[in-house]
Automatic annotation (TrEMBL):
GO MF term set: kinase activity; nucleotidyltransferase activity
Gene3D superfamilies linked to this entry: Aspartate Aminotransferase, domain 1, P-loop containing nucleotide triphosphate hydrolases, Type I PLP-dependent aspartate aminotransferase-like (Major domain)
EC top class, as a word: transferase
UniProt-recorded name of the protein: Aminotransferase
Keywords, ordered alphabetically: Aminotransferase, Kinase, Nucleotidyltransferase, Pyridoxal phosphate, Transferase
Cofactor dependence: pyridoxal 5'-phosphate
Organism: Svornostia abyssi
Top-level taxon of the source organism: Bacteria
Residue ranges occupied by any Aminotransferase class I/classII large domain in the UniProt entry: 233-507
Protein EC: 2.6.1.-
Amino acid sequence: MGLTVVLGGARSGKSAWAEALVADLGLPVRYVATADAGSGMEDRIARHVTRRPTDWETVVAGPDLAGVLGGEEAVLVDGLGVWLASALHHGWPEPLARVREMVDAAATRAAPVVLVIEEAGAGVLPADPETRAWVDLLGEAAQLAAAGSEHAVLVVAGRPVALPAVASFRAPAPLSRHGDLRVHGDRLIPEGAADHAVNVMAGGPPPWLRAALHDALDADGAAYPREDDAVIACAARHGRTADEVVVTNGAAEALWLLPAALRPRHAAVIHPGFTESEAALHAHGVPVTRVLRDPAAGFAIDPSAVPADADLVIVGNPASPSGTLAPAAAILALRRRGRTVVVDEAFMDLVPGEPGSLAGDPLDDVIVVRSLTKALAVPGLRVGYALAPPPLAAALRAVRPPWSANAVALAALRAAAANPAELAAIAERARAERQDLERRLDGAGIRRFPSAANFVLIEVPDGPAALARAHAAGIAVRPCATFPGLTAHHLRVTARDPSANARVAEVLE
């Protein structure tokens, strides 16, 4: 049953509301008074006594606040502010510790505890130091009690207002506390180095795409972008309807829309994976649980490791930086009633045939995030989109900035949908380059993990030394210590043409 906190200002009706709440439970009641007859509150005490049922047991709280909770009856403690004033007056030791003991004891009782707390911090700051100390202590105690409560109610002018749960009212954590989540490979390339750090296909956009981009700039660059045709083309590509497509400024923006659109109470992010999704959750004050894949188990997904109360789960497939491709069944096993599953498929179009993709499956609790940045080699355009059931897609659009995708990016979406054979050829090239890199790493005796994307995760005995050696040879690879679950001895190597692969394998060997 736990603890219910009832807050309110003087004469707000908080005590009467709390008394009615306890009376409606139909249980024996112990009333814990925190003011005694010598406190100068005789008239107020008398009014409270006449209002309460005569069969309620009344006790007066002393220094041991938890000790008055009793046994199996419901308990009403009225009120915490008066008790704290007595604690300061009598010099009772560690009043906040006593409040914490009561909150902990209330959580273990079979019968409920209702705690009335005076709201004293909304007025003018008192002039005398004693009253200021009381106001400060009361504010801290109220936060402590509310954090440990099952329910919290603010009574204003006799009207109860339910306060949100702690998880949905958490202040955003400063992004500086999560700086590692915002480290990306493009910032880790020494000037002039051969790029095996960024997981974008080499060579820039293909000729057929370049032509479409130039045409779009000439035809549409002078007008505000209109996404209708690109949305229809994207929907047709995946066998979805237009109201299931949300075009975004790269896949990263789609992930950043999630906390504002879905308002999750508790999110689980499966790592190692693209870290911007967790950064976005922290920026919006959403509590996050990290669920770590085990390298020894091939980075397999363990649905049982996800907290049961997580109402949002984010997973990459294929995952970066491991390149692990999970079967669709493993992703679907993450679904629960009341939960939304988000699958980041930013690298799926580099996997021939796209096995395991959920992009074409219209599920009412699954959002698929896609990107054309990697395959089309256009990271500067920011081309991404989300595929979601219409209600979730509408929620994403509601928090999306206007003109999220520019006219040239929309042209890339249309061109990709119109050229499936060219996209398939890019995926085959990505596989051939990765397999070539894998053979060379194996020949060099370097431990690697299976990958389905255009990069390979390796583990070496001395990661910093290997990274320094690569930099000295004019080669950039991606250090992976900033990915949760990995260490400084993990490096991600993007596959390139055979000669480039041969050089990076030789240097790492």
